[in-house]
Amino acid sequence: MSIRAKLAWTFILLLIFGITAISSYSILFIRNYLLTEGEQQIINDTEWLAITIQNLRIDEDFETNLNEAARTSGYRLAIYDENGLLFADVPYYQELQANETIDENIASLVRNTQGSLLLNDAAGERLTSYVGLETIHNPAKYLQVSISKEQIYEPIKTIRWIIYTGMFISIGLVLIVSITFSRYISKPILQLESAAREIAGGNTSKSLNLDRNDEFGTLAESLNRMAEKLRADNIELKKLYQKQAQFFADITHEIRNPLHTIAGSIEMMQLSELNEDQRKKYLLTAERQTHRINRLFKDLVTLQRYDSDDQFIQKKRFDVNQAIQMIAELYESEASEKGLKLEASGHSFDVEADPDKIEQVLENLVSNAIKFTNSGTIKMSAKEENGEILVEVQDTGIGISEDHLERLFDRFYRTDKARSRDKGGTGLGLSVVKSILNAHSSEIHVESTPGDGSKFWFTLPKA
Q1: CATH fold of 3-156
Q2: What is the pTM of this model?
């Protein structure tokens, strides 16, 4: 059964039950009300009937007057004398019995009751009232006034038909309203269900436009946000897959080239006609390619730890200027071989960071600066700025064009792949720099002009 049918039947049954219950209660209430009013009415009528009968004389008009009183009041009247014998009964519902008498218990109650005595047997068919008489013109001592309960309930027949007619009309309206309302309620639910099925099937471009301010509208907005989030996640996953595929392709390429070079060098070294200088040359080439592979795996391990190790960095207090001076001493000879001047300046500043990782950052930046600077100076410095320690590495190298700045820190990205490989780079140095600084809640910044050099800088919290 569809949700629309369930809603319709639920509303129909609930409303029909409600209407039926209200109608039944109304009829019962009216029935009890009429009986209560009938009891009060018969007591009042018994009083004036008693006065009327007390003044009747025993003559040729007695029976006529008694019948008129019964006809006018609508009651059955029975009159008993002092001995309790029935001597008049109108209208004539039954043959008079000469020995018919009033019940002695009732007669006793009437004598001891001030006013009328009402008797209402719940299982009986009639409502009866008794009153004592004080007459001088006729022998009447007790008056019995009775009326059929069906006569009292007579208006209920008309009321019942009115209520039943209204009930059936109401049920018809309920059917129409229930079907209309169920459609109104179920329509957004069906739309939401259809949209959710399409989104689950991969159609993340599906969107709902429910112009409603209720919970359905809120749910539609949530579903649209979910679809938008899934759409963005799918795009991100595609980009990630592409990057991953490119990453493995780059690793394969980076390892294959030096391995081919090493294999070629070993093969050449096995030639018997090689002299000692040529043999040393191939041996040095193989050694450099081995170091290149070693650096590649070292950088990969660093990046892997950044991605998965919560203890990637171990912060402690140290002097960043000492790290700068140490890196300057380490690369001084390499810079001198290219005719470059390597300067390190700055005051002592204690920072809160991982000294080994910061040294690795400085080493990668200085190493890149030496590789891509043909003449001039490479400067390393540290200074305090806005309560933080600003560390800079600036060179006068070939610079970087603006087109490459956005992807400069991507893994295996090179501005000039052929020249980078010739210089022994792995394509991971700047990615390692970015990862280490991100782990320190810092960022690497770069400014560069082609032909004028580049400047890299980052900040560390002052200890």
Answers
A1: Beta-Lactamase (3.30.450)
A2: 0.45
Alpha carbon dihedral 274, 276, 277, 279, in 10-degree steps, equals 60
- Report the CATH superfamily, name and number, of domain 313-461: Histidine kinase-like ATPase, C-terminal domain (3.30.565.10)
Do 3-156 and 202-310 show the same overall fold?
A: no
**Cα 171 from chain centroid (whole Å):** 36
Domain boundaries, the chain: 3-156, 202-310, 313-461
Interval 407-439: pLDDT, tens: 787 766 665 544 444 444 556 778 888 888 888
- Fold annotation for 202-310: Helix Hairpins (1.10.287)
CA pair distance 150, 233, nearest whole angstrom: 80
Phi first, then psi, for residue 456 (nearest 5°) are: -110, 140
Strand-strand pairing, 341-346 and 377-385: parallel
> What's the CA angle centered on 250, arms 249 and 252, to 5 degrees?
65
Structure tokens at 272: 């018997």
Contact 461, 388 (CB under 8 A): yes
